[in-house]
Amino acid sequence: MSCCGQRRASWSGLLPSRPAATPASSSPGAPAQKRMMFEYIGSGGSFTVESSRSGKRYRFEQTGARLEVDPRDRPLLAGLRQLRAVE
User: Fold this and answer.
1) Residue at 84 is within a domain
2) Residue 10 domain-assigned?
3) How far apart are CA 64 and CA 13, in angstroms?
4) How many angstroms separate the Cα of 49 from the Cα of each of 40, 42, 71, 79?
5) Distance of alpha carbon 39 from alpha carbon 77, whole angstroms
6) Total of domains in the chain
7) CA 81 to chain centre
8) Which domain range does residue 48 map to?
9) Which whole-number Å values give the CA distances from 80 to 6, 14, 35, 48, 83, in the listed order?
10) If you average pLDDT over residues 2-16, what whole number do you get?
11) For a FRET experiment, which of 13, 28, 54, 75 has its CA 20 to 30 Å from that of 67?
């Protein structure tokens, strides 16, 4: 029986090497994601939201309080009736 190891070794030089993948956020020239502000419009006391996506916790101390949020959390916060996006 012949060994195929030598043949594989010769093939490895024929395949182009792939560059390592980099996340889009760290690519040079990639646009930075815009931070968003949300305002608490609910009534009564404070309001806290914890995101499972970014792991961040947002605590709005009172009605009218505004916080800057991670762009990944925008869909979660936009779906809450106690909050509204502001620019």
Assistant:
1) yes
2) no
3) 63
4) 11, 13, 15, 12
5) 10
6) 1
7) 22
8) 34-87
9) 62, 55, 18, 11, 6
10) 51
11) 28
User: Are 36 and 85 a contacting pair, CB within 8 Å?
Assistant: yes
Tokens in use for 42?
Answer: 């609910």
DSSP secondary structure, 13-80, as one string: TTSPPPPPP--GGGSTTPPPPPPEEEEE--SSS-EEEE-TTT--EEEE-STT-EEEE-GGGHHHHHT-
Place of tokens 């060994």: 3
Which range has the worst mean pLDDT, 13-22, 42-51, 77-86?
13-22
Structural contact between residues 30 and 4, judged by C-beta atoms closer than 8 angstroms? no
* 60 lies in some domain: yes
pLDDT of residue 51: 94
- Report the pLDDT value the prediction gives residue 87, as an integer from 0 to 100: 79
* pTM beyond cutoff 0.85: no
